[in-house]
Design brief:
Largest sheet: 8 strands, mixed
Helix content: 25-40%
Shape: globular
Distance between the termini: 44 Å
Number of helices: 21
Strand order of the largest sheet: 7-8-12-11-10-9-13-14
Length: 565
């Protein structure tokens, strides 16, 4: 019969393995390696997103072993289990990309299911590719058991002609090839060299953005966001995370103690300073929803007025995450933000200490580095994440405006009912200076799944039209996207948003100074068009995409599926 051990740290596992009547449960656990003494230890689930479908996650099985070793050495009992991942980079521009955002929900549901069923007392969740991170965090928020998130780490850069490469280099090379700037042989060389091994995409794209946000939120150990995927630092990060969960159990610190309104404001602040992905808006809204914290689109605007963008990181800048690691990661930046009063230093973190305590001994960036600009000499004096409203986006839209593209754009609409149509038109040379590419019926319900638009935006860049063409959509953008782009337009076209009645030749203005997205068509004409509009038939009537379309909320609310009130 199992020894009860310390039930204060075994709230859930004791219900599964303690007492005579739980002998059948213990019998099954003996078969997976439990010894008698293990039944009196806290059980820690290690949620691994390992998969060979993408380089972002191909190494995470080893990291899960490292985290389990940390748990076991701290006198817990680790149990590794898997959840899914998909690859945005591989599926980009195809029908399969519709499953990308859906995977966030599947990951969250699967982790919640396993931990809830098996009675784990705490969790270490390890994620690599984009949707892993918010998916893991939504699950940890729902479960509210002592938990830590570990980032799987960034990839090292590839190299071609002394120029550092990443996956976005390949997407943009496709546009360059279409414009005859390079030939087939050079495209093949870039393709072969861009991804040298394991790790998440190398710029301040969605994976590195979300890893940084979660560290700023307090749910990762310090510096977890800024370690290469294949490194001794990342291995030790996993071991330390395993041991740290046992300390959280002893101190009874849970995710909802850490994931407060102020902590989410810290995450938003760091994302803005780093020039992070627009996907962070969608995911932070969803993570906050899971923990019951009131974060809205307008919080991004409010915070963004006071926080400068200072990081010269890809896609709009020059450097990759691997280079930021070499100068200290995000911790020195967080220390500067704290010293300026831009972070809440009293927020609790998974170390058991406050954010300010974690940052006490952090050293400044080395002299002479130009990767992270001084707060007084920023790339942009306020946020690059601009929330727009107007007659095209009455519930809001999200633009990524670094200032390099300018702050206003007015042009004529060229309308496409799907991403593939737009991409072909760009590659064929049909898109010209002054066009506003409109891609609709790609929202959470209409897609369904809210595909990312890295293929068309990269093709625009490769064609050399980055400052001359805009793109707007009710879909979303990869963290690798740059240029004059607006996504997350709500209400989306499928539910009768104004994007549905835009016609070729309509004049559209994107105004990032006054936060407006305007269709220059009079109200009577808009009403006439709506009278003629009919909602399209759903693209899927069975399976996970159909279920998702039925459950999912607006992108302005985070595109969540469990807000069932």
């Amino acid at each position: 019969m199992a020894n009860s051990g310390d039930k204060k740290t075994r709230t859930y596992s004791s219900q599964v393995v303690d007492g005579m009547e739980r002998a059948p449960s213990r019998a099954m656990l003996h078969a997976v390696g439990f010894k008698n003494e293990d039944f009196s230890k806290p059980q820690i689930g290690i949620a691994s997103t390992w998969s060979m479908v993408t380089p972002c996650n191909m190494h995470i099985n080893r990291l899960a072993d490292d985290a389990a070793r940390g748990v076991d050495n701290a006198n817990g009992k680790a149990v590794i289990f898997n959840t899914i991942t998909i690859s945005d980079g591989i599926s980009m521009g195809t029908e399969g990309m519709k499953y990308s955002l859906v995977s966030r929900e599947v990951i969250a549901d699967s982790i919640e299911t396993v931990v809830g069923c098996q009675g784990f007392d705490g969790v270490v969740a390890i994620g690599g590719c984009d949707k892993n991170m918010p998916g893991c965090m939504i699950a940890l928020a729902r479960l509210n058991r002592p938990a830590i998130f570990v980032y799987g780490g960034t990839i090292l850069p590839g190299c071609h002609k002394d120029k550092k490469l990443d996956v976005v280099s390949v997407f943009e090379a496709v546009g360059a090839r279409a414009n005859n700037k390079i030939d087939d042989a050079e495209l093949a060389e870039i393709e072969a060299k861009a991804i040298p091994g394991a790790g998440s995409c190398g710029g301040m794209y969605t994976a590195n953005t979300m890893a940084s946000a979660i560290e700023a939120l307090g749910m990762s150990l310090p510096n977890s966001s800024a370690q290469a995927a294949v490194s001794e630092d990342k291995r030790l990060d996993c071991e330390r995370a395993g041991a740290a969960v046992l300390e959280l159990l002893k101190k009874d610190i849970k995710p909802r103690d850490i994931m407060t309104k102020e902590a989410f404001e810290n995450a938003i602040t760091v994302v803005i300073a780093l020039g992070g992905s627009t996907n962070a808006v969608l995911h932070i809204l969803a993570m906050a929803n899971a923990v019951g914290v009131d974060i809205t689109l307008d919080d991004f605007t409010r915070i963004g007025k006071h926080v400068p963008m200072v990081a010269d990181l890809k896609p709009s800048g020059h450097y990759q995450m691997a280079e930021l690691i070499e100068i200290g990661g995000i911790q020195p930046l967080m220390k500067e933000l704290l010293d300026r009063g831009l972070l809440h230093g009293d927020c609790l973190t998974v170390t058991g200490k406050t954010l300010a305590e974690n940052l006490t001994d952090v050293k400044s960036y080395p002299e002479g580095q130009d990767m992270i600009r001084p707060l007084d000499n920023p790339i942009k004096k306020d946020s690059h994440l601009v929330v727009l409203y107007g007659n095209l986006a009455s519930e809001g839209a999200v633009a990524k405006i670094t200032g390099k593209e300018g702050l206003c754009f007015t042009g004529q609409a060229k309308v496409f009912e799907a991403e593939e149509q737009a991409l072909q038109s760009i590659l064929n040379g049909d898109i010209v200076k002054g066009d506003v590419i409109v891609i609709r019926y790609e929202g959470p319900k209409g897609g369904p799944g809210m595909r990312e638009m890295l293929s068309p935006t990269s093709a625009v860049m490769g064609k050399g039209l980055g400052k001359d063409v805009a793109l707007i959509t009710d879909g979303r953008f990869s963290g690798g996207t740059h240029g004059f782009v607006v996504g997350h337009i709500t209400p989306e076209a499928y539910v009768g948003g104004a994007l549905a009645i835009v016609e070729n030749g309509d004049t559209i203005t994107i105004d990032a100074e006054n936060n407006k997205l305007t269709l220059h068509v009079d109200e009577h004409e808009i009403a006439r068009r709506f009278d003629k509009w009919k909602q399209p038939a759903p693209r899927y009537t069975r399976g996970v995409l159909a279920k998702y379309a039925k459950l999912v909320s607006s992108a302005s609310l985070g595109a969540v599926t469990d807000n069932l009130d």
